[in-house]
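Glycosyltransferase family 39 protein
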Amino acid sequence: MAIAATPVRRGRTSFAPDPDSPFWPTAGIVLLLAAQCTMIVTRAVNWDEFHYYAMVEHFRTGQLPTALQTFHVRLFGWLPAAEDNVDAIVAARWVMFACELVTLACIYAVARRFADQRIALLSVLAYLSTGYVLQHGFAFRTDPQATAALMVALAVLARAPLGDRRGAPLALMAGTLVGLSGMITIKAVLFAPTFLGLAWMRLVDDGHNRPRTVLAFAAMAASAVATFALLYQFHAADLSGEPVAAQTPAIRGAETTTALVLSSLDRMFFIGVPNQLSMMVKGIFLAPITTVLVVATPIALVRGLPPAAHERIALAGLWFPALTLAFYENAASYYYAFMLAPVVVSTVAVLGLATRRIPVVMMTAAMVSLTMGVFVMDNRSVIDNQRRIVNVASQLVPEGSGYFDHADMLPRLIKRNGFMTPWGMQAYRDTGRPLYREAMEAAPVPLLLANWWVFGDLDSDRPELFSPRDAEALRENYIHVSGPLFLAGRQVPDGSAVRASEFLVPGPYTAHGAPLILDGDLLTPGQTVHISRGVHHLRSADKGDARLVWGTAKQLPEPDDLNGPSWVAL
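Tokens:
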């Protein structure tokens, strides 16, 4: 039984649609989608987008270490043909945008099972007008892909004729999508209550066709399990199992899929105050109307809206992902585009009441105007700085060289440290080992891309985030070049006496600025010399400040050429 809130008839001019017309939420959706289209090409690439793109590059070169949560690399093997990875990620965003459109269509389809057209469109608008969804709904991550697949499956479960002969093929298709979503991201399991709630509703609805419906459920479940198993075997068969870099111990130790799953699950959930509490609070301010709708929904369900108990159970299941904010660890801003898709469907119970008192045009205007503020405030200059960083780094360091950074911003180099998320850094510290120094001793690492706040810890006299030996090695072996770029090298101030320095990065070094003395030999500006790993002696030639910089480049960018933010706030 659909929630059909018959609106109070309101006056209108002959030139405008009725204040309660479906036209208004449709127009709001179109406007926000148009805004998103501009953000696809102007919004800064988020660090995790670089990370997911790097997986595509590593798969191309046969260096992807695990099959779990990496299936997207097979869908985006065409990306490395782009001129640089920023352009490649922008291209991938258009595919993510298409996934978002599928999600929006499915939100509408499922909502129409419970409500009339206006309310269903408002539930779509409630999703799209959430600030985090506007910013991250098209992001190159696994979330938009998995969300689209899961929402199509939910739409089939809610609306398809499962009780007749057409039910089995549709159920098999839905199960295939569920299995695919599990391959894309293991957090697809968080949608389980949404499927259970809708399944109960269908059992009640289908009455005498219940046996066929049960068979359709069984087909869906079997298809999901079989699809996941087959795709995993297919995907894993081509992987070398060799990691692309010296990863964190948590990743290195997960030599089997079971170990990796258990490691991931161990870090997925928390008890107590969430680490992402600040993002949760920010999300409330960016989407106050959607927040009110979500908070009010369980109250409406408890008070008997809609009247049918099996529909309330279904809506409660759809609302359940909102509770994951209380125990799911990685509920950052991009998670909301995944979590909210079924949740906004459940808000039809509240929207039905609201539209009896508030004209649809006013609700639309309020949602859109608040969200357009998020759109207007977006920093559109950062993506150009990211392009400059990528291009300059690629010119200074040849492909295949090692480097340190946060999220694999330069995937055609070899990242020699682990992913610098809170999980990754905690795993690094738990070892008690100088993993950065060990990486430098194992292979040349000429570039340090200080594109994360964690690197600021190296400026402290008593670093807390890096081991003392790592901090010493990083400070001693890298010098600032421009913006976040640090190259292996040494500063030799004018008049400085001879000093011994341990070079952990062997390779070609070029003198810049002024002459200097290396191991008793005079080096003039522009002169390149090969330096082996080990202790060498440097001093000033008393003719000005000099620098000895890794590489053969005769000209380096100015220190402030790459200044500016590398990221925008989540």
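The chain has 22 helices and twelve strands.
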